[in-house]
Write a structure and sequence with these properties.
Blueprint: H1 9-18, H2 30-40, E1 42-44, H3 56-61, H4 76-91, E2 95-98, E3 104-107, H5 112-119, H6 126-129, H7 132-144, E4 146-148, H8 149-156, H9 161-173, E5 177-183, E6 189-194, H10 195-198, H11 200-204, H12 209-224, E7 226-227, H13 231-236, H14 240-252, E8 256-260, E9 263-266
Antiparallel strand pairs: 1-3, 2-3, 4-6, 5-6, 7-9, 8-9
Helix pairs in contact: 5-12, 7-8, 7-9, 12-14
Length: 274
C-alpha cells in the first residue's frame, strides 16, 4: 500500500487559523458560528479531528486534536455545538441539512447554488428522482409550508418512523427540505420547511455542473491551503473523479498549483502560509 500523504506543518497551521482550531479563535456564540461558516464556505456539524475539513465541533473546542467522546450527551463541548446548531437553524442565516452521504452540513449562502447544482433536485425532476414516500411528505409541505415531525408523518401517511426518516433524509439530501426550528418541550421535535422559503434566490439560481465543481474546490482550497488525494471528495461527498475535475479547473485558471497526483496547493503563495 502507498503511504498516506502527510499534511505539511505549515499547512496545518494555516488550517488552524481558518478552521478555528486555536483557542484564541474558538466559536462561542451563534454569531461566531455564522462568521466561521461564512469564512470557510461549508462545514460539518459534529465531526472531529479524525475527519478532514472544517467542523463546527472542532471550532467550538478550539483545538486541532479534538475528538468526540463515546458519550457525547455528557460532553460539554458536544452539547455546546448541538445547542449552537439549534440556534443557527432558528436564525436561518446559514443553510443546514443532512446533505451528501447523510452528513449534517452547514453552508454559507454564497455556496448554496453550487451545492444545489451538484446534489439538488429541481421541481421538474421530483417525480422521476424522488421516492414515493418523499413525494408524499413533500406534497404536504407544499400545502402547509411548515410542520412538526409527528404532524407531518400523520398528514403524509408515512407513519412508519424508519420510512419517514429515510424520506426526510432524501428530501434534505436533494436540498428541498430543511429544519427551521427545534423544540424539546413537551417533546423533542423538528419543525420542517421548504428550503426555497429561506433561500429563494440561492436555490433558484442556475449554475452548470462544471462551474459548481470548480467553486466547491476553490472554497475548500481557500480554507485548507492544500488538498491531498481523496480529501476534497471525502469532505464534500463528491466522487473522486468530480473532485479532480474541480481541482484541475483551478489549475487551468492559475488559482491552484499541481504538486503531485491529486495534491493541489494555492498558487497565490509559494507556501500556503507565506
Amino acid at each position: 500500500m502507498r503511504p498516506k500523504p502527510q499534511i505539511p506543518a505549515d499547512v496545518e497551521e494555516y488550517r488552524d487559523a481558518r478552521w478555528r482550531r486555536e483557542g484564541a479563535q474558538q466559536v462561542e456564540s451563534a454569531y461566531d458560528a455564522e462568521r466561521f461558516i461564512e469564512q470557510v464556505g461549508f462545514a460539518a456539524c459534529l465531526t472531529d479531528s479524525r475527519r478532514p475539513g472544517p467542523s463546527l465541533y472542532v471550532a467550538v473546542c478550539g483545538r486541532r486534536d479534538a475528538v468526540l467522546p463515546r458519550n457525547v450527551q455528557k460532553d460539554p463541548e458536544a452539547s455546546s455545538t448541538w445547542l449552537l446548531k439549534d440556534d443557527l437553524i432558528k436564525r436561518g442565516k446559514v443553510y443546514y441539512a443532512k446533505l451528501a452521504r447523510g452528513k449534517a452540513t452547514f453552508l454559507a449562502p454564497r455556496m448554496i447554488p453550487y451545492f444545489h447544482a451538484v446534489w439538488g433536485v429541481r421541481k421538474a425532476e421530483e417525480k422521476r428522482r424522488l421516492s414515493r414516500n418523499a413525494r408524499a411528505v413533500l406534497k404536504v409541505l407544499h400545502g402547509e409550508w411548515e410542520m412538526a415531525t409527528s404532524d407531518l408523518r400523520d398528514e403524509s401517511g408515512v407513519k412508519n418512523r424508519v420510512a419517514f426518516g429515510r424520506a426526510m433524509d432524501e428530501l434534505q439530501a436533494a436540498m428541498i427540505v430543511v429544519p427551521s426550528e427545534v423544540y424539546y418541550v413537551p417533546k423533542f421535535t423538528y419543525i420542517w420547511t421548504l428550503g426555497v422559503g429561506r433561500f429563494p434566490d440561492e436555490l433558484r439560481k442556475r449554475v452548470n455542473r462544471d462551474t459548481a465543481l470548480r467553486e466547491i474546490a476553490r472554497c475548500f482550497l481557500a480554507s485548507a491551503g492544500m488538498t491531498i488525494p481523496g480529501e476534497l471528495a471525502r469532505v464534500t461527498g463528491l466522487s473522486r473523479v468530480e473532485a479532480g475535475r474541480g481541482n484541475r479547473a483551478l489549475v487551468a485558471e492559475g488559482y491552484a498549483t499541481l504538486l503531485a497526483a491529486g495534491t493541489y496547493q494555492l498558487a497565490a503563495r509559494s507556501s500556503p502560509v507565506a
